[in-house]
Amino acid sequence: MDSRQLRYFAAIYEQGTLSSAAETCRVAVSALSHHLANLEAEFGAPLFVRKPRGLQPTAAGERLYVHAKSILKAMSAAEKDIREAGTEISGEVSVGMAYSAVKAIAVDLARRVVADYPKVRLSLSESLSGSTLMHLMASEVDIALVYNPPADPRLKTQAVLEEQMVLVGTRAIIGDSDQPVRFADVLDLPMILLRQGISARALMDDTNLLKKLEGRAKLQMNSVHAIGASLAAGLGCTIGTKLFMYEHIESGLLHYRPIVEPELWRTLYVCEMADRPATYALEAVRSLILDLVRRSVVDGRWEARMVMP
């Protein structure tokens, strides 16, 4: 198997027919058919099921496409990186960010990239922390800002900052006081949380406490906007950071109270794939991200404490 076969396979997968893939790759249909047959013989499994209207990938074909996409992207980045070594930094960098990170640094990151690296094409995507991590592992982004990622040998992670979590809701639900509320008392309130799974890990570092919260949750959602609207409508309260619902808190629509016994914290990490070498453009963008995070904490825009050196 070589890179050409992988490119041909990816084209067949994406186009759905040999004729369309042949047109995309500018080769004869017979040549594509020959390469596909060789791949299937090499793997000892069919990669597509032949249908009247085209080709449908098998389970083996789906898995191979995930790997092929990652390999081809890495090869393209390596070629571009080596060719442009010593010249002005250029290339494409995709960054995935959890919601809070977007609010804190996304605009400043875009501004800095445009000003400092005009030949770098920056792609920013916002999603829940768990989805951001999945985008990274599927090669849809090159670097991700993720809360509490699971231990995984495929990931290269660097802890950046820690945020203290607070109770957020209307005064009618969480009380008018600014005094801290005990975690045991939080469990008696109508909670709105992220759905169980990898996204819920972003809520706090302590998984045992998280399980207790999930067991009492009145509503579970995988939408920041839906959670915000539900909080404003008085349907419940949630555990988050002040940055998470900053506008609603500043307007007075929502209130927050510190949580104690115990205090709750979550950790933000910069994540990359361990087997994916960084390009010069990615190194530059990573450096900008870390600098902007540090600046936002120092000037008080991001209420957190730094943990990176």
Automatic annotation (TrEMBL):
One example GO MF annotation: DNA-binding transcription factor activity
Keyword terms: Activator, DNA-binding, Transcription, Transcription regulation
GO biological process, any: regulation of DNA-templated transcription initiation
Residue span, HTH lysR-type domain: 1-58
Similarity annotation: Belongs to the LysR transcriptional regulatory family.
Name the UniProt record assigns to this protein: LysR family transcriptional regulator
Record lineage: Bacteria, Pseudomonadati, Pseudomonadota, Alphaproteobacteria, Hyphomicrobiales
